[in-house]
Design brief:
The structure is a single chain. The chain is mainly alpha-helical and 154 residues long. 63% of the residues lie in helices and 3% in strands. A hairpin with a 2-residue loop joins strand 1 and strand 2. The mean pLDDT is 90.
């Protein structure tokens, strides 16, 4: 993706997700690591940008507002999952539900965002992606996770 295209995609994310990015919960996510040395905040932002990039390449219509907002909130679980706390056991299987509850409480979400958040770990979770926005998030999240885990930053 060219720098210009990436900047355009970031502008879309910041336009539709500015309130989420500035929220106290998202600011807390800056202190929690997600993959390698990438924070949950940085991961969520990267996933939202990737979602916009994927959607722009497909010949389908998307609810861009829901796509951005659901992507930003998909890991809004608000804890350090590396902490050995027993409530964090099986994090991969449960954090989507916790993130959806937190997003509903703190931000307010619609049906598309709710499904995006709950289903983003499909097929590890039994919640099926019901919307094309949910499918795009599943793909973008996996792509970003692989890049963050296995690729070195230059």
């Amino acid at each position: 993706m060219s720098k210009t295209t990436r900047r355009e995609n970031e502008r879309v994310v910041r336009r539709f997700g500015a309130d989420i990015l500035a929220s106290p919960g998202m600011q807390r996510e800056r202190q929690f690591m997600q993959h390698g040395s990438v924070s949950v905040y940085a991961h969520s932002l990267a996933v939202a940008v990737m979602c916009v990039a994927i959607a722009r390449r497909l010949p389908l219509r998307f609810d861009t507002v829901a796509l951005v907002r659901g992507a930003l909130l998909h890991d809004y679980f608000l804890y350090d999952w590396h902490d050995p706390d027993p409530s964090h056991r099986l994090h991969a299987f449960h954090h989507g539900e916790r993130a959806a509850k937190n997003a509903e409480r703190d931000i307010g979400i619609g049906r598309i965002e709710r499904n995006m958040i709950r289903a983003h770990m499909f097929p590890l979770v039994p919640v099926v992606p019901r919307y094309r926005e949910s499918l795009v998030l599943c793909v973008a999240d996996k792509l970003c996770a692989v890049r963050e885990t296995f690729c070195r930053r230059r």
